[in-house]
């Protein structure tokens, strides 16, 4: 039966998934992960951004894992004095995307599910953790946890996501040309990808 536009395949790890290792050129556990772009809303040092800070985490099973930190600012409120829920989902998108990038890139988020478990007061710090649980072809299954004020603090949110490996043509065809050109892509490359 064809999936309806409002339902997507499950985020549960398929039985034939394998645990992917970190790419040989990816940073090692304990090392920081620099922003993947100077303007990213999630990881760059921009005034309006989430300003997540990352390091590679140790994974007991030998897989890929990251740890990240985010300080909750007054301009991120939803309910008075509490973090806007959509920003936790945005933080998970970035953190789960970062751990996938330790395995293979580029990938994009296909589906992301957030469970909100406790309120998150402004002024506190979120400690996030994410792990790639398995891969089947282009599909990478990832889970994450957010804790309050300490790496072993109370769980305030959890997430599950599916990322899909894409080719560079995904960006060549869809991104704004001026942003691609700022990265050194020629107008001719963009035209060729779109013809
Ligand atoms: C020299 C060149 C320089 C270029 C410069 C560029 C540099 C860039 C480098 C680095 C960038 C890093 C960027 C980080 C970004 C951070 C993360 C984000 O914020 S991503 C933004 C939000 N996400 C999107 O905008 C995706 C929008 N969606 C899509 O584009 C498509 O839907 C896409 C690619 C996700 C899937 O489309 P399909 O055509 O490739 O794949 P199909 O055939 O539909 O599905 C493949 C399999 O996946 C499952 N699938 C697809 N969507 C699913 C879903 N929503 N839920 C569950 N399963 C799904 C399907 O059921 C299928 O499974 P079965 O192979 O049959 O088993």
Architecture overview:
Helices cover 19% and strands 29% of the residues. The protein has a domain at 32-166: Hotdog Thioesterase (Thiol Ester Dehydrase, Chain A, Roll), CATH 3.10.129. It has a 7-stranded antiparallel beta sheet with strand order 1-2-3-5-6-7-4, covered by helices on one side. It is built from 4 helices and 7 strands, in the order βββαββββααα. The model has no long low-confidence stretch (mean pLDDT 95). It is of the alpha+beta class and 195 residues long. The protein binds ligand 3VV.
Distance between the termini: 34 Å
CATH topology of one domain: Thiol Ester Dehydrase, Chain A
State the fourth-level CATH superfamily of one domain.
Answer: Hotdog Thioesterase
Give the H and E element order.
Answer: EEEHEEEEHHH
CATH architecture of one domain: Roll
Give the strand content: 25-35%
Mean pLDDT: 95
Helix count from the secondary structure assignment: 4
Keywords: Apoptosis, Cell membrane, Cell projection, Cytoplasm, Fatty acid metabolism, Hydrolase, Lipid metabolism, Membrane, Transit peptide
Enzyme class: hydrolase
GO molecular function, one term: hydrolase activity
Protein name: Acyl-coenzyme A thioesterase THEM4
